[in-house]
Amino acid sequence: MGLIVVSNREPYAPRRGQDGGLHWVPSIGGLTAALDPALQHAGGTWIAWGEELPGVADVDLPQGSPRYRLKRVRLSEAEVRDFYHGFSNRALWPMSHYFIERTRYQASQWRTYVEVNRRFAQAAVESYREGDLIWVHDYQLALVPRMIRDALPDARIGFFWHIPWPSSEVFRTLPWDHELLDGLLGADLIGMHTPEYVAHFLSACRRVLGAETEGDTVQWQGRTSRVVDRPIGIEVDTYEELAASPEVEEAADRIRRTLQTQLVLGVDRLDYTKGIPERLEAFDTFLDRHPEARGRVTLLQIAVPSREQVESYRQLRTRVEGLVGRINGKHTRDGWSPIQYIYRGVPREELVSHYRAADVMLVTPLRDGLNLVAKEFVACSGDGVLILSRFAGAADELAEAVQVNPYNPEGLTGALTRALSMPLEEKKARLQRLRERLRQSDLRTWADGFVAEIAGA
Fold first, then answer.
1. Is 368 tagged catalytic?
2. DSSP letters of 401-421?
3. Of the listed 162, 193, 200, 331, which one is catalytic?
């Protein structure tokens, strides 16, 4: 029995070295870290979109034994524009995060989405051998399970939706709501991060399709699909070991010595769902209300570039940088600036050093499917405090975090005041309970468990 993984992003990207040789570079992200070991163990195929690179075809990856095959789906520039940047990220992404005013429902982009999903499904069908398990991932490929099911009626198919599933009132704004649900219900097992998302999905099945639901199951077209909440974890041991390494400890000490203040940290992709402008404005309010904090508290905001070719994301960057400049201009004194802003990707070791140095971690998205940054901070911090948005999926698991409404600057200011003055004993007790919860479902446990559930669904 092998495993077939289907995702938009490929686990290894080809790069030409200076010598002209081909090198396969692992992609950054939890999905690769979770599923690469599973495929190395079981063998099989990973199907993903691959950028064109002359001389690169489907390959057997040599990272482990038995090796598995990477099958790359080719997309034209127009298909990437309409399927990925268009329908996936201008229709499904904002709709799922409750940003209806940002949605763009275009029939031409939907048609491209259908066609690209068909290509992914066909690649899976071609790779399938009797007994294989198929695991499809995320909102870009929601139609693939049904397309595979039509070709392979007896296959065991799982799907994981990695972003929020909205309430049925919001979901029904999608002109192709029926088609999307039907596509997903081709899977035997559908996974989401929280019980709330599962409840919303079941409600949509009843209201849009008229399907029967009972417990965690949906009856549709003579078949039963299970819908379960299985929040993804992180590599807890890896992060803990890295945080305790001499190199990271030294780097964290250097950050503290350089700032010589309490450090409040934010780490986000520069996306409108992450609540960065609201966070900056709340910090401005905090400094207004607590002038004694000036010169004693610094906010370091790391913003990782995201979808820079999209105009609304460029506008967001301009807004964020304008806020940073205004707040710094308002509060800077005696060589101290209240906000330090980093706009670039950050290597994991550097990121862990910042987690280790931070007194407070601000994870305050307006809406987030889960948020692994919160979990990474918990695994790495020695005595920091996590402030977490109640609208992050991780809030269900991380109850000992200081939870806030990111739309309420007064509440966020109060939470920051509380976190910065929290007794050391309380901080350590909260972190200990949070870490215990992380260990109950780390990344490998999540992946292995879901694969086992697909097999037994």
1. yes
2. SEEE-TT-HHHHHHHHHHHHT
3. 162
- Find tokens 């050093």 and name the residue: 353
User: Is-contact 384 358, C-beta < 8 A?
Assistant: yes
For the chain, the residue count is 457
Query: One of 36, 138, 271, 368 is an active-site residue; which one?
Result: 368
Strand ranges, E, within 33-94: 44-49, 59-61, 68-73
> Of the given ranges (55-59, 187-191, 411-415), which has the lowest mean pLDDT?
55-59
CB-based contacts of 235, cutoff 8 Å, min separation 6: 33, 442, 443, 444
Give mean pLDDT, residues 398-416.
96
Q: Name residue 156's amino acid.
A: R
Q: What are phi and psi of 4, to 5 degrees?
A: -115, 115
The two structure tokens encoding residue 342: 């980093």
Decide: 200 and 171 in contact? Cβ < 8 Å: yes
pTM metric for this prediction: 0.94
Question: Could you report how far apart the first and last alpha carbons of the chain are, in Å?
Answer: 15
Supply 167's token pair: 């309430």
Between the alpha carbon of residue 174 and those of residues 82, 106, 177, 394, 414, the distances in Å are 16, 10, 5, 26, 38
pLDDT of residue 310: 79
Distance CA 154, CA 132 (A): 10
Active site residue 85: no
Segments of 63-109 assigned E as strands: 68-73
CB 87 within 8 A of CB 106: yes
Lookup: tokens for 30: 């939890």
Q: What is the pLDDT of residues 284-330, one digit of tens each?
A: 999 999 999 999 999 999 999 988 877 889 999 999 999 999 999 99
Q: How far is the C-alpha of 193 from the C-alpha of 230, rounded, in Å?
A: 5
d(CA 38, CA 42): 6
What single-letter DSSP state applies at residue 208?
I
